Amino acid sequence: MNTSCLEERLSSAASIVLSLWFSFSGLAAVTGNGLMLWLFYKNKSLRTISNRFLASLSLADFVVGSVVDPVWIVVRCLIQPPVQSISFDVINLLWTHTTAATTFNLCCVSVDRFISIRFPFRYQDIVTKKRCYTVIISVWLFSSGLPFSTTTVNDMGYVVAELLSALAFIIFAVPLLVVSLVYICIFKEAKEILRGISAEKITGNYDENIRVRAKQNFKAIKTVGLVLGTCITTWLPSFVLLLLHFYYSKANHNCKRNKLIFVVWPWVEAVAFTSSAINPLIYYFRNQEFRRAFRSTFRNLSSRFNEENELETVKKRKRNHSIGNGVVTGNLAVQKTEF
To answer: DSSP secondary structure string, 217-281?
Structure first.
């Protein structure tokens, strides 16, 4: 075996660029998702069932920014340990967990949007608070238990290749298929509503509620379309690389497999983890309730800050005025004593 290919590692320039990428991506993910979780906690009006799915997604993205990105800077960019090491096992566990948590929470959000559009009058009966918590807990338990399936295999041979292909299907193919089907169904629903609006305009029986519903559907189409585009752009490279990893492991192309693991995978992981910084922009800043809560919360903080500044200014003025009076009185007393 050619031992030189087993020593494939990132160059110094690539390590620096990736470290900066992970740093900025992690900071953006922590800031954006932390802000949205804080708004969800502070405003009772935002604690709807749909927003609970969003909060679960934000928590997964927050973990990526606060835990995964710093670990990847240390392990992937600085240490770059061999495959058979504890550090490499740790990043494999973290990668599987965070990827599964993110993609399955994306599925939950998309399906919730579909139910609210397809069954608007039965939504509260279908998606109850109990079912919502059951789904969220199940997603987190499944994504937490899934990584430990990789620890049962100690070699990088055919069994690992089979396991990687199964993980690729579970983590990437299933969520992507679900989000795609949801997008198609919402699009069909919006087209049917548009046909109904056109027919009502012709007959003169125009209903304003249908127009509002159509507007909401097209907004949902844009949101789910952005989700689908972001999901494909950020996660599809990881899916392709898992399939390549499966092929190289099965064919015993050790040199190509090691180059894939140490040189190519860090870049693909950086692209995938960037989605954690993008998701708040897609979901929350397109959500009117969160935008309103954001403006009102920071407006209240700003007004409270201005009030505190005004009180402090008044106190300073009173303090300066009393000090000034004390100085004048002291001067008069000295003058009287001298006289």
So the answer is: HHHHHHHHHHHHHHHHHHHHHHHHHHHHHHHHHHTT-HHHHHHIIIIIHHHHHHHHHTHHHHHHH
Answer yes or no: are the C-beta atoms of 221 and 183 closer than 8 Å.
Answer: yes
Query: 20 pLDDT exceeds 70?
Result: yes
| Residues 145 and 170 sit within 8 Å (Cβ to Cβ) | no
pLDDT tens across 267-317, in order? 988 998 898 888 888 877 677 777 787 777 777 655 554 555 555 555 555
Burial of 218-238, coded b for 16+ CB within 10 Å and e otherwise, reads eebbebbebbbebbeebbebb
Most distant pair of Cα atoms in the chain: their distance: 110
Task: Identify which of 219, 224, 218, 29 has the alpha carbon closest to the alpha carbon of residue 108.
Answer: 224
Residue from 32, 107, 111 nearest 279 by CA: 32
Which residues, 6+ apart, have CB-to-CB distance to 184 below 8 Å?
Answer: none
Neighbour-count burial for 55-76, b at 16+ CB within 10 Å, e otherwise = bbbbbbbbbbbbebbebbbebb
CA–CA dist 240, 235 (Å, integer): 9
> Are 196 and 148 spatial neighbours (Cβ–Cβ below 8 Å)?
no
